[in-house]
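User: Run a structure prediction on this.
Assistant: Running it now.
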Amino acid sequence: MPVTSLSRLAKTAHDPSRPVAEDDVLPAFYWQRLCVVRLARGMPADTVSKTSRAIDGRMALGIPVSYMGAHVYTAITRLPLGQAICSFATFIARQPDSSVLMYNDTHNGNTDVGATSSLNTNQTLPPSWGPSLGPCRFFRRSIGAPIPGAFVVQPAEGLAIPVAVCLPQDDLEALKKDSLWRQYTRCIG
């Protein structure tokens, strides 16, 4: 996506009473356009589609940026922490197919979106990992099957913001043809 396109897109989502970060505009736009093309392809209108957004809470929690973020927590609960953890562990143990689990819920690759954005990580990452490693250009994902619906935004490189999506071929082709998606993005590959 051209950097200028994100600025234009963010202006369309602007509501002075509810400010939205550019980091959140792009995943929301992806989810919206993906829902539109899926509905156009015949998905029932009453189908539930969820989106999840990974966040980096290190700065807010005072954790050094050198910590690689091995733990992700999402909680909307009023339980004591011990009870919530026990309940979560029981849920995972009883799940017959753990490949459908995401950090915050089950994930249906036919309807749901899992988004992460590193667009503004340049503000928190060191400019370089030193002379041996150089600048950070890639982000690690654990070994496993592809996650349909995944949407990953990388830090801007020059005048472009690299975005990677993982979709079934039908969804990808429909998204490439979506006029609003094409207005703001450029597809490579």
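The chain is about 35% helix and 10% strand.
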